Amino acid sequence: MYNSGKIIPGIIIFLAIVTFPFWSNAGKTNVKPEPKIDTPAIQQMPEGERKCIESKEFMKAGHMQMLNDWRDSVIRGGDRVFVSSTGKHYNMSLQNECLRCHSNKKDFCDKCHKYLAVKPYCWDCHIEPKENKS
Amino acid sequence: MSMDRRDFLKIAGITGLLGAGTAALSGRMPGALEAASTSPNSNALKAKQWAMVIDMRKFKTPDDYKKVIHACHSIHNIPDFGNPKDEIKWIWTDTFEHTFVGQEHEHISEAVKEKPFVLLCNHCEKPACVRVCPTKATFKRKDGIVMMDYHRCIGCRFCMAACPFGARSFNYRDPRPFIKDNNLKYPTRMKGVVEKCTFCVERLDEGLMPACVEACKDTKALVFGDLGDPASEVRKVLRENFTIRRKPELGTSPSVYYIVGGGENAG
Amino acid sequence: MLDKALDGSKRYWTWILFLLAVIGIGMANYLKQFEYGLGVTGMSRDISWGVYIAQFTYLVGVAASAVMLIIPKYLHDYKTFGKIVILGEFLAISAVTMCLLFIVADLGQPMRLMNVVLYPTPGSILFWDMIVLNGYLFINLLVGWTTLAAERKQVPPPAWIKPFIYLSIPWAVSIHTVTAFLYAGLPGRHLWLTAIMAPRFLSSAFASGPALLILLCLLVRKLSKFDPGKEAIQTLAKIVTYAMIINIFFLAMEFFTAFYSNIPGHMAPLQYLFFGFHGHGNLVPFMWASIIIGVTSVGLLINPATRQNEKILAFAAAGIFIATWIDKGIGLVIGGFIPNPFEKVTEYSATGTEISIALGIWAIGALVLTVLYKIAISVKEETGGEEVH
């Protein structure tokens, strides 16, 4: 092989950089995030009605898509009312509806987002509830 | 081997593109809600074309202007940068000369010459800003309001070049540190997007009049209503008064009308 | 063929390193802009487009000018241009690359760039500009690379490339026409609202692009063993002469319409640019410099004795490049915003950050051009610059 003196160290350095995320995190335990739902607004709800607007499973997997649909519906269509699959009506607003119950952004939204290393830019414009501001 | 490296790369490339394309097309989440739906608020105000008449005769003291501007700028989280370069404004004042460019003459009455005029987005019937926007981030709603979708705006500022009324502001920097009292019910904007007056769609959709109109409802200095409804209050005011619009010759057909007045101080 | 770009003299590598340094500084400043927002520039609520969009507009012209080599060569079989047509195509690639980068640098939300594709809006001229610019980049890459590869192997270019070559002619016209439409269709911006905006753009393009090409040809001859040929350079000079005369003529037309009609709105931006308006006149010295340099250069180009002297020709070509750059790369865009919709004047001056980012993009263009020219010239040195038909 020509230039093996350069190529082999080159390959080693390349591999070291490419695998950096794996070995730099190796051995560290990542606790599964448990978003908290113990806010005052939720506590006040009667036990039987303590439910989100759709099922927990759907919200977990689909809230981002839902918020996307909501913003198009509200801003572009002028529709501001969401009729859930159980027939209940909700004001489609991240800031005024979702966060009314989930007023604990740090312990709710941020927990999973941080774990999954996603950075939604919702909060660049939408103001997070006051109780979170230190 | 029957396939050389070149062909392999070609096929691999095409396969990759197809894969990416299919992924993009099948964008909807699995388990999307079939039963859920959306609708407007039952008490939402509706119109064919919202319009405003600004009755300048009713603006007398500096306070008359201040309360109108404050009503808007405080609820919409408008920042105050304290310099004209970064300035953001939805409703503001300027002289007759600058509001109605080319209309002033040297013998104009002092009352008109000195008077501040109220300015805001004209919500044109044929808006130039909407025509030029490359992403439909600014668009015309069914009720005639020229609306901004801040989620979609790429910040090219083509709309600012197109607007002949100087109604649009750009967020040259993060506005948040410059907003005095946040209205927690309304979002702020982020750096890099264009913003302007929206005729308070968020209020109309909930059955309320625009904030500026409500702020001066005792004097009726701002009259708001549906241009498409002959019985509406704006149509009545337009029928009974002589009104003018800014730069009508440009064909954008502004929906903001002015009763200039100025004769009442002449006596 | 890319390997040819890796085998250069010490001077070549010094130049590359210099460009990389300028690009690096520009990148660092762009990161600053990305963090803080476009507030780091001199742009404001009133002057909402500045250096970036002005450079973009100017460089679209430089890109379009490749057609001034394609038409004589492929439509009129003017063989003299055979040797340098690749230089024009590669210049177009470099210029369009800079155009696209300048647009991205100007966006407030560059991460959302793809919204233009995700929400296609045929009613917006910017949508069409995206299509024609990217298309033009693609066509020139395809044509330039294929013809050069054929020349290297000393075989005629493949027949399938011909339609692309012919397509590039109307396409070049379209990029500058569409770019002119960005401006010419806006109500209330009197400087831009003119039916001869596209013709003006094309005339200044066909002056500035070939002028730059003359300088590049002279440089190539000096630095390499490849000679583009005196006749080719002289023909380019004649193209520049005619185009620049038409360009100046068009400017005079604008003056006549504005000032003879005496309509204040039409006069105001020209007054601001050339004489000062309401006590503001930052650009007046620049605009007059542009006129004086432009007219002088045309004089030197018209006279055969001075045109045929290549030292003077280089001087005149540089003059044309500078004059058209001031006119289009500064005056046209800034002047369009003055006075503002309220007939008030806000002046604009670029900040250091903004200029550094612009220089960085110019350096990227120069780097692309250097690498492409290095490849083309290495091939020409091997083959002696002769094509096969």
Helical fraction of chain B = 25-40%
Strand percentage of chain B: 5-15%
Main CATH class of chain B: Alpha Beta
Number of beta strands of chain B: 10
Q: Globular, elongated, flat, extended or rod-shaped: what is the shape of chain B?
A: elongated
Rounded Rg of chain C: 21 Å
CATH class group of chain C = Mainly Alpha
CATH fold assignment of chain C: Formate dehydrogenase/DMSO reductase fold
N-to-C terminal Cα separation of chain C, in Å? 21 Å
At the fourth level of CATH, the homologous superfamily of chain C is Formate dehydrogenase/DMSO reductase domain
> Can you tell me the CATH architecture of chain C?
Up-down Bundle
**Tally of separate domains of chain B:** 1
Helical content class of chain C: over 70%
| Tally of helical runs of chain B | 9
Strand order of the largest sheet of chain B: 9-2-10
Query: Which parts of chain B are unreliable, with pLDDT below 50 for 5 consecutive residues or more?
Result: none
Count interface residues per chain for the largest interface.
B-C, 47 and 46 residues
**Strand-and-helix sequence of chain B, N→C?**
HEEHEHHEHEEHEEHHEHE
Question: What can be said about this structure in brief?
Answer:
Helix content of chain A is 49%, strand content 4%.
Could you explain how this protein is built, in words?
The complex is a heterotrimer of chains A (134), B (267) and C (389). Chain A is mainly α and 134 residues long. Chain A has 7 helices and 2 strands. In chain A, strand 1 (81-83) and strand 2 (89-91) form a beta hairpin. Chain A starts with a helix and ends in a 9-residue tail after the last helix. Chain B has a 3-stranded mixed sheet with strand order 9-2-10. The longest helix of chain B is centred in the N-terminal third of the chain and has 21 residues, at 5-25. Chain C has one domain: Formate dehydrogenase/DMSO reductase fold, CATH 1.20.1630.10. Chain C has helices spanning 10-36, 51-64, 67-75, 85-106, 115-118, 125-152, 161-184, 197-223, 230-261, 264-274, 284-302, 304-308, 310-336, 352-383. The radius of gyration of chain C is 21 Å and the shape is globular. The two termini of chain C are 21 Å apart. The mean pLDDT of chain C is 94. Chains in contact: A-B, B-C. At the B-C interface, helix 3, helix 5, helix 6 and strand 7 of B face helix 5 and helix 6 of C.
